[in-house]
Amino acid sequence: MPDRGRVIGGSARGLRLEAPRGGVVRPLSDRVKESLFGALEADGALAGPFLDLYAGSGAGGIEALSRGAPTATFVERDDRACSVIRANLARARLAGGTVICDDVGRYLTRARDPDAGQFSAVLVDPPYGDETLGRALAALPSGGWLAHPGIVVAKHFWRDDPPERIGSLRRTRQKRFGETVLSFYTREERRSTGEEET
Fold first, then answer.
1. Does 197 fall in a domain?
2. Shortest CA distance to 9 belongs to which of 49, 69, 51?
3. Lower Cβ count inside 10 Å, N or C end of the chain?
4. For position 15, what pLDDT does the model report?
5. Of 192, 193, 176, whose CA–CA distance to 184 is shortest?
6. Looking at residue 17, what is its pLDDT?
7. Beta strands 97-100; 72-75: pairing state
8. Does the residue 151 lie in any domain?
9. What are the 10-residue block averages of pLDDT along the chain, 198 residues in total?
10. What is the domain count for the chain?
């Protein structure tokens, strides 16, 4: 299987990751990964559960576990990629990883298990041009998946700029790396009336 980068921080630092053949995933470059996880660590967002949507080889969730996230849930619909995520977790010797081989949209429309807790950080990394990005972002707070406060990071092509506000999510910053952009979102604070801003 082809090499798809490495873990760059934490207990599994230096581990080379694998990805399935056939181009079903795109690598998360070291430069993007360092900026993403440096920001999440600075905000304390890795202290709680991590959700890796469109997980690919699992690079995002594995990086989060390596840097101290207590758990990581990987959602990926491709069977080959799911097998590789499990293999990468085993090679990294990281506990707390759960692989869900399912479509992201279907996963987010399920009734969330109230005993499973909420996610303090979410990476949303669909294929470039995928129209489900906006729906996935909207479903996270409305379905109760996101802790308050929580951070959602969308990785996307620079021309596919998602809205500044999606439901109760508000974009707080963006970082561009060539054609790739990271858009950071947080949940809006509740108003004194108890209603969330939209």
1. no
2. 69
3. C
4. 95
5. 176
6. 93
7. parallel
8. yes
9. 76 92 71 96 96 95 98 95 96 96 94 80 92 92 89 95 93 96 87 44
10. 1
Beta carbons within 10 angstroms of residue 15's beta carbon: 18
Whole-angstrom Cα distance, residue 128 to residue 56? 13
Quick one: how many helices (H) and strands (E) in the chain? 5, 10
Residue identified by tokens 């729906």 is: 135
Checking 19-25 for CB contacts under 8 A at 24+ apart, the result is 19/56, 19/57, 19/81, 19/84, 20/57, 20/78, 20/80, 20/81, 20/83, 20/84, 21/80, 22/80, 24/56, 24/78, 24/80, 24/81, 25/56, 25/57, 25/78, 25/81
Hey, what are 176's tokens? 């561009």
Strand 180-187 with 146-157, pairing: antiparallel
Domain that holds residue 93: 3-187
Is residue 52 within 8 Å of residue 60, measured between CB atoms?
Answer: yes
Tokens of residue 145, six digits: 């998946």
